[in-house]
Amino acid sequence: MAVIEKSKTPKTKTPKTTFPTGPKKSKKSKIRKVTKSTSTKKENSNSPKKRNGKKCILYGIPIFIIFALVAALIVVFTLGNVNFGKDKEEVKEVDKKEVEVCKTPECIILAHHLHNWNDDSVDPCKDFFKYSCGKYNEHNTVEYSQMSKKTEILKGLIKEFLKKNESSSSKTENTMKHLFRTCEESKDESIKDKIEKERIEVIKQEAMNIGWPLADPTWRESSFDLAELLEQIPTILDGERNEIGYGIFNIWTPSARKIFIGTTTESFTDFGTVKRNILQVLGKDAPSNLDNIVKEINEFSKELRAIHASIPLSDDPNQKYSNNFEEINDALPVFDYLIKSLLSKGSRSWGKVKNKIYGYNSFLSKIEKIRDLVYKDKRITANYLVYKYVSNLLRFTPGYVECHQVVIDNLPLPSLRVFIRNHFDKGALKDVDNLVEDIRSSFIEMLEKSEWIREKTRIGAIRKAKAMKKTISYPPELEKPGALDKHFNIQLDPSDSYYLTMRKIDKASMNLLMDYVSSDFPMGPHFTLSSNAVYSYFGNSINIYAPLMDDPLFHSSFPNYAKIAGIGIIIGHEIGHGYDIFGINFDENGIFKPWFDAADQKEYENKAACLTNQYNNYDDHSFGKKLNGTFTVKEMMADELGQDVAWRTFKKLDLSQEKKIIGFEDDSIEKLYFQIGATTWCSPRSPLTLQQQLMRSHPTYSFRVNGLFANEKAFAETFNCPAGSPMNPVKKCTMF
Ligand SMILES: [Zn+2]
User: Fold this and answer.
1) Which among 258, 239, 324 is positioned nearest to 538, based on CA atoms?
2) Averaged over 353-371, what is the pLDDT?
3) Of 54, 354, 549, 703, which is most buried with the most CB atoms under 10 A?
4) Residue 528 Cα to ligand 1 middle (Å)
5) Beta-bridge mates of residue 347
6) Which residues sit opposite 359 in a β-bridge?
7) How far is the CA of 268 from the centre of ligand 1 (A)?
8) ipTM for the complex shown
9) How far is the CA of 601 from the centre of ligand 1 (A)?
10) Compositional bias of type Basic residues: which residue ranges (predicted)?
11) Looking at residues 568-582, what average pLDDT do you find?
C-alpha cells in the first residue's frame, strides 16, 4: 500500500499556480518568502515551544557548521592531519537530518497555511475551526474554502491560455479559442448590433426550415410528424449540461451511464415573454393574430405543466426511477428514434443503451396524457414546440458572463485537458490511485469490524465498496494527442459566429452525453472545471477531478499523513456517499435495490438523526444556533464516514518514516493530521444569508471541522480535551 511505504524523494514541479501573476521566483526565494512570513508570525506568538523550534531551523545549521569547523581545526592542530572518514560521517549526519523535514515548495506552502492561519490564542478543545483557521482572513481574499480558491485560480489559467494567441494542433483547443474570440467580438460595441441582427436572422431561418405554423401560412397538419419535429429541436439546458430539452419532456444522464426520461422542471412562460420573443425573431413578419397564438401556446404550456406536476416528486427511489423504457416507448414511440439520432454511431450503439433508460418520477403514468395533449391540435403543438426551441436559441448570447467563463462552462472537458496538459503534475495520478485503494481497504475493514450490523448488511456493504468504480482525473485513453478531437467532433469554419459556434458545441456535447452512456466515450462529459470530487449513486462510482489532487490540498512530495488528512478525508467522504441515507438504497451497480437489513436500517437512521441533532444544536460562527440538519444529513454522514476511514488509514502509517513539516518538528504528527484536515475548510465568515445556507446540502465549513472532529475519539485524546468540552462531547455520533 502506497501510503504506508517509506516516502521516496519525489520529482517536484514548481507550483506555477501559486504565484500566477508575480515574477518567476527560484525555489530558494520562495522558501525565503515563506520563512519570513512564518517568522513574523512567530515573533507575535505566545508559544515558547514553537519559538524554540523556529530558532532551531533558522540558526541550527550555521551553528552546526561553526562547531564543525572549530572541531576540524582542533583536530588539524592537535593531530596534524585530517580524519576524512569522520568528516564523511558528519556529512551523512547532516543529510539524515535534512530528509526528516519536507522542504519542497509545496510542503513550505503547507507549512505556511499551518503557521499563519492558526490562531493559537484559541483553545483547540473549544473551537478547533477557529484554532486552525482563525487568521485565514489575514491571508486570503477569496470567499469560501480553499477549493473555491483553486477554482478561481483555474479560471485565471484558462483565461491566460485563451488570451495567449498561440496556434495549436488540437481541434478542441482551437474550438475554445474560437469561442472565446467570437464571444469577445459579440461584446464589441462597434459590431455588436450587426452580429445580433445576423444571429436573429439565422434563428428565424432555422425556425422556418423546421416548419413554424404561426409564421408559415402554407403549413399543413398532414406534414406534422412528432418524431421528426422533436429530432430537430433538442438543446442542452443550462445548469450541469447533462439535460437535453425537447419542449415536452427532457432526457438526461445522472453522471452515470444511464438515461432518465421525464422532467425536472417545466419553466413557466408568461404571455409577455412569449410575445416579445416571437416579435424579436419575426419582426414585421409576425402574424396579425399573434395575441391569440400566444394565448394558445401559454395554454398548452399550462396543461403540460399540470401533467408533469400531477405526481409530486417522490423521495421513494422505487417510484423515482423505473426501468420501464419499453412501455414508455410503446405509449409514445419517439424515444428510441430520438436517442439513436444523438448517438454518434446511431443504431449500431443502440444495443448498448436501450437497457439503461429509465422513466423518471412515474413518467409512464404521464405519457398517455402528454400524447393526448400533443395530438389534440397539431398546429398548436408545432407552434409551441418551435417556440420553445427558439426561446432556447435566444439565450445563446454571452450576456454579462465573462468570455473565459463562457468557454469553461460550455467546454469543460477541453478546459480540463488544457489544465492537465499545462499545469498538472501527473506524478499525482499514481499516488492518488493508491490512496483511493488504501481508503477503500480501510472502509472495508471498518465494515468488517462493525459491531452492530447484521451479516446481510455487512455483505451488501462490502460488496458495494469492492465494486465501486473510480476515475482519477482523466481516462488514459483521452490522454493521447487527438483522442478528444476524435470524439468531440466539431467542424468549425473560421467565419462561424459566436452563435453558430455555440450551436455546434451544443450538438457535439449532446453526442458526447449519449456516447458516454453507450461507452463509446470514456468519461462523463458533464462536470465543472473545479477542485472537487463526486460520487454517483447511479453508477456507484467516484470521480476525483485533477485540480483537487494539486496545490494546495495535495502534492506527491507531501508526507503521507498530509495526503491522507488533505484529500484522503475527501476520498473517504465520496466513498461514504454510497452509504449515506440515500445511497444505501442503491446496490453495487447503482441500481435501486436496498441491501440493508431492515432492523439495521432503523438503527442506521437513528445514527443519522444523531448528526442532524448535533447540527441543529450547533452554534455556528456565521449563523449561530439556527441551522437545520435535515437537508445536510447526507453530507454529514459522508463527512463522518470519510474521517473515520481516513483516520484508520492514518493509523497504519509508520510515523517514524514520515517527514516533518517545517516549524512543526516538535509537534506530534497526530496533531498535524487534524490541523491539516481542518485547513481544507478554512474560510472567512460566510457570504451567504441564513436562508441561502438553509437551502444548501452541505453543512457550514466550521461544522465540517468542529462537528466532524468532535465525534472522533482520537481527536480528544490527541489534544487532551476534557470530557464534556465542545470538542469532546459525551455523546458522539458514529456510523458503522
Ligand atoms: Zn458530498
Assistant:
1) 258
2) 92
3) 549
4) 15
5) none
6) 261, 322
7) 31
8) 1.00
9) 21
10) 24-35
11) 97
Residue 544 alpha carbon to ligand 1 centre in Å:
12
583 Cα to the center of ligand 1, angstroms: 11
**Which amino acid does the sequence have at 653?**
L
Q: How close is the Cα of 117 to the center of ligand 1, in Å?
A: 25
d(CA 557, CA 559): 6
Q: Is residue 260 scored above 70 in pLDDT?
A: yes
At what angle are helices 146-163 and 171-186 packed, to 10 degrees? 90
β-strands 541-544, 243-245: how paired? Answer: unpaired
Q: 427 alpha carbon to ligand 1 midpoint, in Å?
A: 26
| 37: pLDDT strictly greater than 80 | no
Could you tell me the distance, in angstroms and rounded to a whole number, from the CA of residue 573 to the centre of ligand 1? 6
Tens of pLDDT, residues 614-658: 999 999 988 999 999 999 999 999 999 999 999 999 999 999 999
Distance 254 CA to ligand 1 centre (A): 15
Q: What are phi and psi of 516, to 5 degrees?
A: -65, -45
Ligand 1 center from residue 541 Cα (angstroms):
13
% of the chain at pLDDT higher than 70: 85
- Say how many Å lie between the CA of residue 577 and the centre of ligand 1: 7
Q: How many angstroms separate the CA atoms of 327 and 307, rounded?
A: 18
Q: Measure the CA angle with vertex 234, ends 229 and 237; round to 5°.
A: 150
Which H/E stretch holds residue 359?
strand 357-360
Percent of the chain with pLDDT over 90: 69
Q: Which residues contact 323 (CB under 8 A, 6 or more apart)?
A: 355, 358
Distance (Å) from CA 635 to ligand 1 centroid: 5
Report CA(645)–ligand 1 centroid distance (Å): 15
Q: Is the model's pLDDT at 722 over the cut of 80?
A: yes
Lowest mean pLDDT among 43-52, 226-235, 452-461, 529-538: 43-52
Name the DSSP letter for residue 102: E
Ligand 1 centroid, distance to 430 Cα (angstroms): 23
**CA 540 to ligand 1 center in whole angstroms:** 14
Model confidence pLDDT, tens digit, residues 284-297 = 999 999 999 999 99
User: What distance in angstroms lies between residue 533's CA and the mean position of ligand 1's atoms?
Assistant: 8
The per-residue pLDDT of the chain, averaged, comes to 85
Residue 672: pLDDT over 50: yes
Residue 16, pLDDT score: 29
For residue 26, which phi and psi values (nearest 5 degrees)?
Answer: -75, 160
Mean pLDDT of 701-706: 96
Q: Where does residue 713 rank: exposed (0-12), middle (13-18), buried (19+ CB within 10 A)? A: exposed
Residue 263 Cα to ligand 1 middle (Å): 24
**CA dihedral of residues 3, 5, 9, 12 (deg, nearest 10):** -20
Q: How close is the Cα of 632 to the center of ligand 1, in Å?
A: 9
Q: Domains, the chain, ranges and CATH?
A: 100-141+428-474+531-736 (3.40.390.10), 210-394 (1.10.1380.10)
What is the whole-number distance in angstroms between the Cα of residue 147 and the centre of ligand 1?
13
The Å distance, Cα 695 to ligand 1 centre, comes to: 15
- Strand ranges for 409-488 from DSSP E: 469-472
Q: Could you tell me the distance, in angstroms and rounded to a whole number, from the CA of residue 401 to the centre of ligand 1? A: 28
Orientation of helix 364-376 relative to helix 290-309, angle to 10°: 160
Q: What is the pLDDT of residue 72?
A: 43
**CA of residue 574 to ligand 1 center, whole Å:** 6
Lowest model confidence (mean pLDDT) among 543-552, 636-645, 716-725 = 543-552
Ligand 1 centre from 48 Cα, in Å? 40
Q: What is the pLDDT of residue 268?
A: 64
Ligand 1 center from residue 640 Cα (angstroms): 11
Helix (H), strand (E) counts: the chain: 30, 11
Which pLDDT score, from 0 to 100, does residue 353 have?
Answer: 96
Res 424 pLDDT > 50 = yes
Q: What is the CA radius of gyration of the chain?
A: 30
Higher pLDDT pick, 477 / 186:
186
